[in-house]
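Exercise: predict the fold of this chain.
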Amino acid sequence: MDPECDISVVRIAVDYYPFKGGSNIHTRELAEKIHPHLRRQVIIAHDHGEMCREFDEHYHIPIIRVKAGQFQKKFGIPVFPLNNLIYMMRVTGVVKNLDDIDIIHAHNISNIGFSWFVGKIFSIPVIGMMHGTNQANSRISGIYETILATLFKPAFAFILDDGSVAPEKYQRLWGDRITVVRHAIDTEIYAPGKKSCSLLEGLGIPGSDFVVLSTSSFLPVKNIDCTIEAFASFLATTGASDAHLILAGEGKDREALEALAREHAIEDAVRFVGNQPPEILLEYLSISDVIVGSSLYSNMNRSIQEAMACEIPPVVFDSGGTGSVVRHLQNGILVEPADIGSFAEALSLLYRNPALRQDLGKNARRTILEERNWDDRIRQELAVYRKCVGLYRSGSSGRMNGSR
């Protein structure tokens, strides 16, 4: 690992607390892993009230919580821009009162946009971080993101390769300012362990049963309906009475997904357990034989790779560059996107062959150890930090913070 950096960083995040979304967990782990290598790090994040207090009080990195505007939507008039503007103004006040800042590191396009202004006001270079692209959620979100990215270019930026078009998109928009990075997984936390007997008992699942786990959110882009369809086909073809599908997620599609399970008459074999905090999710991983990803957009999300680190083989649709981390019949099983029958066959193969599950699982962990480790990722981050601060301190800052 590189030596420590004589650099002070203010990290502007969104929802910085332990249990909400892959990008937020990613931001938190990054902050924790890089913290020992910095002279100073302060985190600025949204204030969600009491739910943050206990976490913040015991956390080893200083966190300053800032409230956004509280205006409510009326008569169909969107208030998000106004609430975000209020948040930006309050963050500006916080940064003004902080001294000795070398870099503002802003996560997501809205934070990058207003950090650009803050950086201009206080002459602080801004580094951006995009955890994929918003166009995965909707066309409108993608257009909004493109407009902001075109108007407000950071000095440098990290673009997470999550299997989306984000690297190509930001290469066009920001050119050589970007560094493409991968997810990094904490393989000390995410490691094979003993099955959680208490969780199995609570779920009423015998320890010898076959457990399929999905930790994706219930959003259209995740295509959880494909997971349920494939599991129903698997049960129909194998006649397995000792197999269970656990859906550890939440989202607007939940009611439709529960109805789909009832439609296939498999509701007794499908458990909707909701979002789980990381420490409880580890227990679910401990009892699982297979992790599944059925997004037709990309299955390179953190949850798949965390499960791989725990020696759990993935069965996933080969969408959005997923094959760069999951290799067919080497560390998991790749299925042609939307091929429900082949997905069911892959589950059947692993159900009937525990030895194959074990071999694929061990290779899966090896892949994460070699290709998704935090040491390599932190080296990348520190190299960009040094370059950014070096240019700024030397006065070569003509291109900093968005000179176009």
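Check your answer against the key: The chain has two domains: 8-184+373-393, 197-371.
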